[in-house]
Amino acid sequence: MERAQDRIPQRLRALPSRLVNQVALSANRLVDQALGAAGLRRYHYSLLAALAEFGPASQAALGRRTGIDRSDIVAAVNELAERGLVERSPDPDDRRRNVITVTAAGGRQLEELDRLLSGAQDELLASLNVAEREQLISLLTRVADHHAAPH
Amino acid sequence: MERAQDRIPQRLRALPSRLVNQVALSANRLVDQALGAAGLRRYHYSLLAALAEFGPASQAALGRRTGIDRSDIVAAVNELAERGLVERSPDPDDRRRNVITVTAAGGRQLEELDRLLSGAQDELLASLNVAEREQLISLLTRVADHHAAPH
DNA sequence: CTCATCTCAGCAAGACTGAGATGT
DNA sequence: CACATCTCAGTCTTGCTGAGATGA
């Protein structure tokens, strides 16, 4: 019989790449939980956020802005439309496109999701004070930007 | 036609949970690339590291120490054994178990993987100086530990 | 003709579940 | 008997690719 909690190798515990993955896992768990309280998922929030910030858009543009694959946008928009949070209508200027628009209910839902998400971030960073949170965000942003850059 | 690079919503860019995910993605890409140079994967490194630090172990113990699922250990150990990096032999004290042992070649391979991985971490954190790297690691460790704790 | 858009069908990898065979 | 171990088969989810239909 082995000890209940086996120790994790130091080589692994110290690896930044692994640390970041663990934190990402916790983050995803907390965020999924929070958004799940509203019956929605991460990509729903991404879509609503993109629509709220940049206004009505084609599904292709939404895909580029949120990083959601072209193939998956269809179903996600369907789900939002079924709940009355967005409307899909043909673009009169370019009949290949659907223009997606947030409804009033969608706007209210987004505010609610913002509150839920903000709570999840607080939980995630609960062990850090305000200055430390800002520092972590700043460092992560620099690392992320460095690799997102047009190489 | 849309602009080539669509802007990402500020709500998303600012979210710590999202930042951490982006960084984790870059980390995984770099690490996979580095280990791929030796023809191995992340879980192979985890296994070799666990064996090197805690000595020969059963497959079940390896699973607990590395977080690899019991079902996936079998194949991973097979792959390492085929390459002659570990040996699988029946445990004389408990005949349900296989005892997995690192070979000399496995030890050398681990050192090589350590070098490759260390290079990947450097690439990942290239935009930070040494003090900043330590700070990031310390903050991430605190966040990770806070959520890993036996709640 | 070319390219973009929307849509669907299907693949591949990863994380997991269930269950059987063996042994403690 | 309950439980641990090793193994295989199969499921589910996610991110992606390919291709067809429509239209600019």
CATH H-level name of chain A... which superfamily?
Answer: Winged helix-like DNA-binding domain superfamily/Winged helix DNA-binding domain
Distance between the termini of chain A: 51 Å
Measured by residues with Cβ under 8 Å of the partner chain's Cβ, the largest interface is: A-B, 61 and 61 residues
User: What is the CATH architecture annotation of chain A?
Assistant: Orthogonal Bundle
State the domain count of chain A: 1
CATH class of chain A: Mainly Alpha
Organism (chains A, B): Nonomuraea gerenzanensis
Protein name (chains A, B): Regulatory protein, MarR
Pfam family, one (chains A, B): MarR_2
Domain HTH marR-type (chains A, B): 1-145
Summarize the structure.
Chains A, B: One of its GO terms (molecular function) is DNA-binding transcription factor activity. The structure is a homodimer of 151-residue chains. The first copy, chain A, has 151 residues and is mainly alpha-helical.
Task: Walk me through this protein's architecture.
Two copies of one chain form a homodimer. Chain A has 151 residues and is mainly alpha-helical. The first copy, chain A, has one domain: Arc Repressor Mutant, subunit A, CATH 1.10.10. Chain A has seven helices and three strands. In chain A, strands 1-3-2 form a three-stranded antiparallel beta sheet. In chain A, β2 and β3 form a beta hairpin. In chain A, α2 crosses α6 (104-124) and α3 (42-54) crosses α6. Chain A is elongated and about 60 Å long. In chain A, 38% of the residues are buried. Chains A and B meet through α1, α2, α3, α4 and α6 of A and α1, α2, α3, α4 and α6 of B. The structure holds a DNA duplex (24 and 24 nucleotides). Chains A, B: One of its GO terms (molecular function) is DNA-binding transcription factor activity. Chains A, B: Residues 1-145 form the HTH marR-type domain. Chains A, B: This is Regulatory protein, MarR. Chains A, B: It comes from Nonomuraea gerenzanensis.
